[in-house]
What does this fold into?
Amino acid sequence: MELSTTTFPPGFLWGTSIGAHQTEGNNTASDWWLLENSRGSGVHEPSGDAVDGYHRWAEDLQLAARAGLRDYRFGIEWSRIEPVDGRISTANVQHYARIIERARELGLRPLPTLHHFTLPLWFSQGGGWRRSDAVERFLRYVDAVAPVLESGVERVETINEPNIVAALATGASGLAQGLPVPDRAVTDAMIRLHDATRDRLRVNHPRILTGWGVSVQDYQAEPGAEHVLHAYTYPRDEIFLEASRGDDWVGIQSYTRGWIRDVGGRPQALIDDDAPRTQSGWENYPEAVGGAVRRAARVIGGVPIIVTENGIATDDDSARIEYTRRALLSLRQAMDDGVDVRGYLHWSLLDNYEWGDWGPTFGLVSVDRGTFDRTPKPSLAWLGSLAPERTSGRAA
It folds into this structure.
């Protein structure tokens, strides 16, 4: 099959994703800023100015729109909205509202993410997600951004990769070697938070479609290990997918696959040292997204899927195009087999800060970190050229 503008149905979401902390720069009121700038933290490089996305967001929107993309997922930074406990920054509420208004003017459907790993420092130092009032405090922030959401948002993602949030709560790092079992208390907190946020949004913004983005890799069992696969996947992503059954849509964020073997009746991740690797250390396996949405569909039932992240860390843009081409073909094949997929958002629009490291480059656009000049790569125009036909209806 050759990819074209008719490969995916009219109205199919077609765009990119970015993260707030990873692009905006100088997010000084957040817990990650403190971590990055603390001695002995283990963070290789700080984010600093990042790619100055806080000031250059209009240029980034223009790049996406001119390429032919239709959808734009970005982050609202809680620590900018509420840098001090109980004090809402009206200026930053207006800042994010302007992003949404301009996106719509350019023909982009904005999809804001409310939480993407970073927390206000005051919240984190007070216990973070283990606080007894964590849900209440987050809902206060959700209420504060009501003017943003009423600026023209059709969809909201409550939490980016809640399973990774819970995994990082165990103190784990270097997730390329396999995902640890996420912290159960934080897992439960993520699910409570998501349910409460979804319910609040449905009351206050009933026309907005709500979901969250779960990291779902294509876990495959070695021959003879099929019986232990569920024991591996359930705490790492399927418990979060189960919690999505009441949502309007669920985001699947997938990059690679992992092999699972049986060791004494227990599952264990197997690292294939001979497999081709990306800059992030993950196996270069484009078809992972097809396997991920198939497995997710078996868990979530009839909830529509949006691929809210998929991409490759590479400095070879021709390899990026080839990876994405194969990923999209695997996604189309899954849809042909009955998986209800409503959109594809590539990670990432820009080369940006990858949580402690500037090395991995996922972007469709390169950024000079000295001047912040943006230079589109051929992959941006290529992806935009495949945009499905527009339709007046909503995709999910």
In short: Residues 184-204 form the longest helix (21 residues).
